[in-house]
Design brief:
By secondary structure, the chain is mostly helical. The protein has one domain. Helices cover 65% and strands 0% of the residues.
Amino acid sequence: AAFYLRLDGYQYHGVLGVLDSMARQAVVYQYRRARRPETAVSGAAAEWWGYAYRAVVMDNKRNRVR
């Protein structure tokens, strides 16, 4: 059973926007435990380096489990 869906350009770009947003949320969700700083990078470099370190450590742990 097949079905067809017809979208105009505006609708197509809207769907792409939703998919992009969902992909970004998946990344944010993946790194939520790394505690992303709420300050600007230029004002708190040490906090951002700590965040980067925690994110890499989380990735390494996740990859070892696989």
